[in-house]
Amino acid sequence: MSIYDIEVKTIQGETQTLASYKGKVLLIVNTATGCGFAPQFKGLQLLHDKYRDQGFAVLGFPCSQFANQEKEHDRDIVQACEINFGVNFPLFSRINVNGSDAHPLFQYLTNEARGVLGSKSIKWNFTKFLVDREGNVVKRYGSTEEPEKLEEPIKKLLAKV
């Protein structure tokens, strides 16, 4: 199974796989609009805007598993992201990223790129996974890693054609 076979639900409620992102460099992030790290939405959007024409996309997956910091309804999440942070990169329906009901995408990501001391679990909102054009999970970045600091690794992956 590859990352492109995994089914996801868009924030508009449509089920799809990640196949439409084949050949792109991806930054997959578990987000929360009420989190102290939410200002990272702006940095994520800047990266998305700057590199999307070169084959890059940020994919946001709202999650409320950490201190219940995400809105309950997808429409409210979209509104908060657009109004408060100017987000227009792809957002998906709210999911769980840890535990027995973790979404298959995050089961895959955490298995491919472990955290501190080999841990699979995600510690907090705004954990980021960098994926190359072939669908390989290249690196996992913690919540405190600012999106702007990921620009060089993104540029290196985009340069590989």
How would you portray this structure in words?
It is built from 4 helices and 6 strands. The chain has helices at 40-51, 74-85, 104-112, 151-159, and strands at 7-9, 15-17, 25-31, 56-62, 128-131, 137-141. The chain is of the alpha+beta class and 161 residues long. It is 26% helix and 18% strand. It has one domain (3-159): 3-Layer(aba) Sandwich (Glutaredoxin). Strand 3, helix 1 and strand 4 (56-62) form a beta-alpha-beta unit. It is globular and about 40 Å long. The model has no long low-confidence stretch (mean pLDDT 93). The active site is at 35. Pfam families: GSHPx (PF00255). It comes from Paenibacillus nanensis. Keywords: Oxidoreductase, Peroxidase.
Brief write-up:
This protein has 161 residues and is of the alpha+beta class. It is 26% helix and 18% strand.
